[in-house]
Amino acid sequence: MSLDRAYRETIDYLYALQKHGVKLALSNSFALMALMGDPHRKFRSVHVAGTNGKGSTASFIASMLLAAGYRVGLYTSPHLVSFSERIRINNVLITEAKVVELAGRVRDAARKSTGPDGRRSLNPTFFEVTTAMAFTYFADESVDIAVLEAGMGGRLDSTNVITPLVSVITNIELEHTEFLGTALTQIAGEKAGIIKQGVPVVTGATQQEVITVLEREAAARKAGFYRLSKDFMHFPVPAQREQVFDYRGIKCSYEKARINMLGGYQVDNACLALASIECLRNAGIIVDEAAVRRGLERVRWEGRLELVARKPDIYLDGAHNPASAQKLAATIRGMRRAYGRTVLVIGILGDKDCQGITSALVPLADHVVVTKPRYSRAMDVRELATEIRKLHGSVETAETVKEAIAAAGKAASPDDLVLITGSLYVVGDARAALHPEPDRSESLSGLKG
C-alpha cells in the first residue's frame, strides 16, 4: 500500500474515533499508556492548561528550550490544516509515515485489550489515541523534555497522566461549561487538577475567586505558586514592529526582551513561559539569557493574529470565546489607524458564546462576512447573520470560508484590513484556502477535535 493511501486510511480511522465523543476520565489513558510501555514515564515534561493562550505559551517554552540545545517535543491541539501540526520535535512536524506507524501501534494495542468477560475493554476517543501516539513518539525519539498542552479542562484530560517539572495554568474563563461546570470556581477546580505534589505552578489567572482555588490546591500539594503581575511581571518598552518589554521575574530579569507575535496578550504568554523556564532551573534544565532571547524572537504561532496576505492585509486569529475576542478587539483597535476600512470574516461554533464574541468584534468592522467552518458543530450561517445584523448594517453571508475570503476580497481595497476569526476551525479552513496543498484530500479537513 502506498504511503499516501495508508495515511488517508489512518486519518479516516482517527476521524471515526470522534464518534466516541469526549470522555473526561483517565482510565483509558492510563490503560493505553500501560499497553504502550508507559511512554509518559520516559521523558521530562512541562504541562500547560488554561482557557486561552495555551498553544502560544507552550510554543514560547519549547522555542527557548530548543534554542538552549535541548531536544524538545511539543504536543498541541487542535491542528489548523494538517494533523501533523499537533506533534513536533525540535519544531519539525511528525511525518505522515510516523503517524501511520504510531496510530497502527496504538490501535493494535487497544484492540488486544480485554476485560474480565473477555470482551474488548477499550473504546478510546480521538484525543486519547492522539495523546498515546504523541507520548510514544516522544519516548521513542528520546526527547530531553516535552511541552504538552492539555486538551479540555485538566484534571481528567488525557494528558494528565504525567508528572511534569512545572505546571502552567495560563488563565481561566468560562468555557466548555457542559463538561467543566458553569462557574469560574468549578472550571478552576478542573484546571487545578494538573497541579502535582511538589511541582511548581505558574499562572496568569487574575480573578480572585480563581486564584483562591488554585492557591488552595497548590498549598495542599506543597507546590510553589507563582502569579503573573505579582511574582513576575513585564513593563512595555516602545518599539516599532516587534513587541519589546522588560521582564522582572521570580529570580531573573531581562531588559528589552523581544517577541515578533502581535497582541499585548502575547507578552503575557511570553512572561508565563519565562517564569516556567525559571522554574525548570530547579530541575537542572538550564536556559541561558542568549537562548531565552533567541527562543522568544523565533516564535511564530499559526492562527494567532497571523498575517497571511498583503494588499489587503489579511490576519487570522482563532479567538473563540468572549475573553479572547475582547483581547483581539483591543489589538485591532490599535492597528486600525494604519488602515482604511476593516472587513471582518467570522464563523462561530454553535456551542460557543455567540453574543459575547460578536459584541466584542463586530463593532470594529466596516463590513462583515458571515461564514462557517467545515465542522459539524459550526453555527448555521443564517442564524449567525441574524444575530450580527442586530449589531451591524453591512452584513453578507458565505457558506464556506473559501467563499467568504473571496467576498472579503471584493469588499476590501488594497489599504484595508481583513480579519478572519471566530474559531480556530475557521482559521484552519482559511489557511487551507489561502495556501492550498494540491495533494491534500478535502476529507482531511474534517478532522478537528
Strand element count: 17
Return the CATH topology of the largest domain: UDP-N-acetylmuramoyl-L-alanine:D-glutamate ligase
CATH homologous superfamily grouping of the largest domain? Mur-like, catalytic domain
Helix fraction by DSSP (H/I, runs of at least 4): 25-40%
Main sheet: strand order: 4-3-2-5-1-6-7-8
CATH architecture of the largest domain: 3-Layer(aba) Sandwich
Total helical elements: 15
Reported for the largest beta sheet, the result is: 8 strands, mixed
CA-based gyration radius:
22 Å
**What would the average pLDDT be, to the nearest integer?**
92
SS content category = alpha/beta
Shape: globular
What are the low-pLDDT stretches, counting only 5+ consecutive residues below 50?
A: 438-449
CATH class of the largest domain: Alpha Beta
Distance between the termini: 27 Å
Strand content: 15-25%
The number of distinct structural domains comes to 2
Core attributes:
single chain; 449 residues; alpha/beta; UDP-N-acetylmuramoyl-L-alanine:D-glutamate ligase; Protein-Tyrosine Phosphatase, Chain A; 2 domains; 8-stranded mixed β-sheet; 6-stranded mixed β-sheet; 15 helices; globular; disordered C terminus
Itemize the secondary structure elements and their pairings:
Blueprint: H1 3-16, H2 27-35, E1 44-49, H3 54-67, E2 72-75, E3 87-89, E4 92-93, H4 96-112, H5 126-140, E5 145-149, E6 166-169, H6 177-180, H7 184-191, E7 201-203, H8 208-220, E8 225-227, E9 233-237, E10 243-248, E11 253-259, H9 264-280, H10 289-298, E12 306-309, E13 313-316, H11 322-335, E14 342-346, H12 354-361, E15 367-370, H13 381-389, E16 395-397, H14 401-411, E17 417-421, H15 424-434
Parallel strand pairs: 1-5, 1-6, 2-5, 6-7, 7-8, 13-17, 14-15, 14-17, 15-16
Antiparallel strand pairs: 2-3, 3-4, 9-10, 10-11, 12-13
